[in-house]
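Notes, Module 5: Reading structure tokens.

Key idea: the token line is not a picture. It is a compressed description, and you learn to read it the same way you learned to read a sequence, by spotting repeated patterns. We will look at two proteins. The first is printed below with its tokens.
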Amino acid sequence: MLNNNRLQLAKTFVLFALITTLTASIVAQATIQSASTTSNTEAQIESGNTTVQLLAPVEPKDITVEQAEAEDSAFRADIPLSRELQASLKDACDRFNVPFELALAVIWRETRFQNEMGDSGNSYGYMQIQPRWHSSRMEALGVTDLMDPAQNFLVGCNYLGECIASAGIEGGLTLYNSGHDGPSSYADDVVEKYNEFLKEN
């Protein structure tokens, strides 16, 4: 009788162990499925003494057909600036209400689309910014490197927009170049190129 009781007790322990293992397995599987459907980039599950790190898939950003077409149409293959640089310039133009083609014409007149230093090292970058005249503007815009194209465009378009708002396109171009408004051969050159860019667009 004692042996029968021991046998029955052993069977009970085995059955309990099987049920415990099966329950843990079901819980782990449910946790994995739940983790895979979450929007978190990482999830953790625990089974016994083991911690498993799961990486949930990151959904790609959807780009509409209209956005793709707009981005493609904004790029000008006739301009010797990369798509990234043109996008950076356009952002600066939009921010400070400067026509994109006008900014292109200014860059053409200043450096022929070269990111260089001019005026014996006093003028910097595509739009030939002189720090001695624009240090306060640079500080206000958080600009520290005028040879960085994006920062150069930011300062240049900020100043160009300010000049145009003050004296119109032709007067503003002279103001941008020399510090005073009025007619100038510089403004004539830029306006001519500006109109060319408009026609070619």
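Here is the second protein, with the sequence above and the tokens below, as before.
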Amino acid sequence: MIFKNLIMKYSFDKILISPKKLKFFVRTINNINIIDAYFFLLNISSFKKAKILLNKIKLIIANLKLKAFLYYIKEIKVTKSIVLIRSQPRAKGRAFKIQRKYSYLTIIVSQYQNSKIKNIAIKNLERFFTIYFNTNY
């Protein structure tokens, strides 16, 4: 069988978190299955940055529907976006600068090519359905 290597690119802009803070969580979910990334971020979802990434992964899973188990996160890029500068008044007419840094998030998703890896992905899908829907797929 000939499989085409399907690559999809999802880009999200103006996320209100500095790129330095977001890169910490991005490193952990690079090159893994989308559903595994979802479960990992669900476990550490007490952090604001993890919640934002979790919502983006949910959007990708919803877009791929039942084929989500065949895809993995090939690459994630976090780049600097705009910086809003605000000022906080201080004593004696001075002002203190507040920088609100935004970031761009680009997620590149690719399809598995190896059949052994696809079998592992199918087992992950079965685990996903048994946990959330209490049924076997």
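Summary for the second protein:
- The chain is about 40% helix and 35% strand.
- The chain has a mean pLDDT of 82.
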